[in-house]
Write a sequence for this structure.
């Protein structure tokens, strides 16, 4: 794909999070929803797929999910448009979404934000290209590199010693990486990280553009930036070229639905072709309508919704910090660089001073208190708070954390602290993944090159990615995380007792 | 004209009272509050359509949730009451001279207002100088107190509405923390009879057993509650509900009661076999 970065476009993007939809009245429609309503009135006799025929052929499923749900689980047809080649209601829905997010183009994605991340990487990278990115990316980014054969230039994120978490990228480090790799085609940024930490997105975007590189933004945890007040700058407002926005997280749509947003420098027709390489040709109308309805809701009510979420989280943070030992962090982490901004809707809590790993608190909350939180890792937990929450549930969470401290607090000696170990990249993810491999035990694998992913899910950030050296420190970390009860994924060996490595070691 | 109040006790069982007139119906931030007048049960209060109390049988509930712990603990001076917006528990507690301080925590102030106006039989004693009212979440209130109360009475609604947080392990654990070393917690414990109530009952018992050294269940007969067979939980750090009963001491107080007496106190802890089995399952 040809690269074109114009100065005029740069200047235009130099505004805050002000959405371009000054006129909200146009956002009151939901074209996919309306097309489905109309379709139901038509009472067509279905001699097409899906074979459950509006649920009549699968009573058990219809009883479970409900008839209203099954009647709109339909396939592409003239009056409902086609996700792969949208010309009517899906096209209108995408245009409304683009306006709502201040993007030049928006794509409805039905295979998760993973597919949005992969599409943006595959749109700008091909084999042999270099892409600059922080190593604490979601696995979907490195997956894309396995597929296209691009070479990652990792910027090691700064870490916070007290919390043990990876922060954002320092501008100076991005500058250095660009200087050393002037031929790189793109810079990828997390906005924000799972924990809520943002890099200086606007400056990084401007820097990348000055060097004729695209800016790609993994905004899986930042959909609300487009609608809330007092929140970090969104990718599109910062002038970025691509953003993968998880509508199903803070946006309220169904699981697996997402938006890929593009800026003005992007050839959207090419992006559509890239998306169609891997996207289903039977896009789910349940997912599509959920995107359409949620976009409308956010455009009309998002500001109020996220104000409520902010208030809930702020209340919880103050109360949790009063319990003692827990540290629910926030904007005080901001340092102007590696923590350029903080997403105050994130309820991230460090648990190490309670003497418990985050994953242990996560398990206790679920097993003992019937509370399911988003994730727990080595030293932190994240409770996901959204428009669906209320003060009563927040009280339960706070009450349970207080009880866990009273009943389970112990000495923190012997606890691992760091979530992040700087990897040693030996070869590209593609070569690492497709190379000739052998299976070794964890101990035997030390000193070899890993041929697969290893990660805790959530958060899904690889501890090891294909092509990286396996060190003693990493194996110790994997064993510790397993021992503490982290849900480990990635390797062929489901028990994670063995790892696939490249034959021949290194 | 026939006007009936009906409550589904299960999906296929209905309980109805013929209503003379509806006295008030308001929607609060938390729930719908109604008070009706009936010939058989007098006035009665419902929340979200669920029977809370009637003038005719409320004495059974309020006496049993209050006098049982009061006859066991040797010196109850500071009490925390959670829920109980109708005032019945407060009425019974204020009969004891030794009680010096009652913190009363109810999430829905409108319930208290409505009861003060329409149910003076129970809402009679909120103005007692020992009573300190807090209109906030019970879990939040109790979380901030430690080693403070001799007795906590949890007079909650069912665990399917605003009262849900009062049937959780975090709530019982925080009550434990708020009690003194010889403190007692008594709670509304649902019914063992219908399946949905029994599930809630077992769940509550499991959570209390996990938090308290002594955890026993006792029963009473409450005609207007589902099945009429109702349970209370007695959870304690030190005192046994039967062995430590001070019958002579309580009888010397000369409190007039309609249901409770110290013999019935002991009997209330002897449970039917099927209830014992349910409790045993989760202990």
């Amino acid at each position: 794909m040809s690269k074109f970065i114009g100065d005029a476009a740069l200047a235009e993007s130099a505004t805050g999070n002000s959405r371009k939809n000054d006129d909200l009245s146009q956002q009151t429609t939901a074209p996919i929803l309306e097309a489905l309503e109309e379709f139901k009135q038509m009472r067509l006799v279905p001699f097409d797929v899906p074979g459950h025929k509006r649920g009549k052929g699968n009573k058990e499923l219809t009883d479970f999910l409900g008839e209203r749900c099954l009647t709109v689980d339909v396939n592409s047809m003239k009056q409902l448009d086609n996700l792969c080649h949208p010309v009517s209601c899906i096209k209108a829905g995408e245009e409304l979404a683009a306006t709502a997010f201040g993007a030049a183009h928006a794509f409805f994605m039905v295979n998760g934000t993973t597919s949005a991340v992969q599409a943006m990487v595959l749109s700008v990278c091909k084999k042999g290209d270099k892409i600059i990115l922080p190593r604490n990316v979601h696995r979907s980014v490195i997956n894309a590199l396995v597929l296209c054969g691009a070479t990652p230039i990792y910027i090691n994120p700064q870490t916070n010693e007290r919390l043990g978490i990876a922060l954002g990228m320092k501008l100076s480090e991005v500058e250095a990486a660009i200087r050393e790799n002037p031929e790189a085609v793109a810079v990828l940024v997390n906005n924000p990280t799972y924990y809520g930490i943002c890099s200086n997105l606007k400056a990084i975007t401007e820097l990348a553009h000055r060097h004729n590189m695209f800016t790609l933004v993994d905004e899986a945890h930042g959909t609300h930036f487009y609608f809330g007040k007092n929140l970090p700058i969104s990718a599109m407002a910062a002038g970025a070229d691509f953003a993968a926005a998880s509508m199903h997280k803070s946006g309220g749509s169904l699981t697996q639905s997402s938006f890929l947003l593009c800026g003005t420098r992007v050839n959207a027709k090419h992006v559509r072709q890239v998306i169609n390489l891997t996207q289903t040709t039977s896009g789910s109308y349940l997912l599509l309508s959920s995107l359409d309805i949620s976009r409308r809701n956010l455009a009309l009510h998002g500001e109020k919704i996220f104000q409520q979420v902010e208030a809930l989280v702020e209340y919880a943070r103050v109360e949790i910090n009063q319990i003692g030992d827990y540290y629910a962090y926030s904007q005080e982490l901001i340092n102007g660089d590696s923590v350029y901004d903080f997403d105050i809707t994130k309820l991230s809590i460090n648990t190490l001073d309670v003497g418990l790993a985050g994953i242990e608190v996560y398990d206790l909350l679920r097993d003992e208190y019937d509370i399911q939180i988003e994730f727990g890792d080595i030293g932190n937990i994240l409770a996901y708070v959204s428009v669906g929450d209320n003060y009563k549930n927040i009280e339960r969470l706070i009450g349970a954390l207080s009880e866990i401290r009273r009943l389970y607090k112990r000495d923190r000696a012997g606890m691992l602290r760091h979530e992040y170990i700087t990897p040693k990249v030996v070869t590209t993810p593609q070569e690492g993944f497709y190379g000739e491999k052998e299976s070794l035990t964890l101990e035997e694998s030390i000193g070899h090159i890993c041929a697969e992913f290893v990660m805790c899910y959530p958060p899904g950030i690889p501890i090891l990615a294909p092509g990286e050296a396996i060190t003693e420190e990493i194996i110790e970390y994997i064993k510790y995380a397993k021992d503490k009860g982290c849900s480990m994924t990635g390797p062929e060996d489901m028990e994670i007792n063995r790892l696939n490595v490249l034959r021949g070691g290194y | 004209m026939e006007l009936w109040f009906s409550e589904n006790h299960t999906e296929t069982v209905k309980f109805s009272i013929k209503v003379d007139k509806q006295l008030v119906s308001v929607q609060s931030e938390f729930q719908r509050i109604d008070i009706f007048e009936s010939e058989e049960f007098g006035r009665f209060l419902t929340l979200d359509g669920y029977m809370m109390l009637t003038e005719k049988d409320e004495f059974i509930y309020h006496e049993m949730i209050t006098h049982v712990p009061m006859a066991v603990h040797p010196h109850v001076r500071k009490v925390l009451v959670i829920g109980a917006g109708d005032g019945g528990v407060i009425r019974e507690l204020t009969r004891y001279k030794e009680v010096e301080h009652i913190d009363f925590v109810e999430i829905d102030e409108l319930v208290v207002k409505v009861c003060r106006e329409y149910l003076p039989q129970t809402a009679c004693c909120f103005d007692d100088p020992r009573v300190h009212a807090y209109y906030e979440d019970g879990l939040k209130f109790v979380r901030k107190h430690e080693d403070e109360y001799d007795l906590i009475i949890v007079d909650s609604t069912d665990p399917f509405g605003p009262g849900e947080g009062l049937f959780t392990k975090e709530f019982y654990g925080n009550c434990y923390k708020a009690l003194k070393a010889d403190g007692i917690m008594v709670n509304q414990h649902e019914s063992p009879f219908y399946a949905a109530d029994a599930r809630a009952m077992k769940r509550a018992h499991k959570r209390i057993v996990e938090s308290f050294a002594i955890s026993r269940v006792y029963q009473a007969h409450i005609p207007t509650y589902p099945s009429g067979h109702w349970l209370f939980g007695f959870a304690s750090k030190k005192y046994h509900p039967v062995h430590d009963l001070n019958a002579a001491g309580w009888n010397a107080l000369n409190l007039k009661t309609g249901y409770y007496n110290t013999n019935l106190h002991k009997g209330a802890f002897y449970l039917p076999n099927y209830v014992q089995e349910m409790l045993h399952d989760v202990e």
